[in-house]
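Quick one:
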Amino acid sequence: MEKNVEVSLLLDFYGELLKPAVRQTVDLYYNDDLSLAEAAQQTGITRQGVRDSIKRGEQQLYEYEKKLGLMRRFRQLEDGLDGIAEAAREICLRSSDDNITALAQGIADAAGALKE
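Output:
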């Protein structure tokens, strides 16, 4: 996964655990796509201060993921739901029994709803 996307997702999962100033600089850099200089103007700190804050934030986010694994578990759940929905669709296609087809469609719908 591309680092920018990964850090942005980690920020979604663990951003509230960061100090507000660190969270803001990481958010400006990764989510708002600001340069270090632009983020420095927005936050009122130096460009180097923004860079250091971003690096510290990245390190903390990766450490949280290493310890807690929320993003990994989320991806596993999404993959599992995709597999369930695909299997249910396959059952719908192969079954000639209307009751089984209806149940399989219900499973596919439930899996889709859980992903939303």
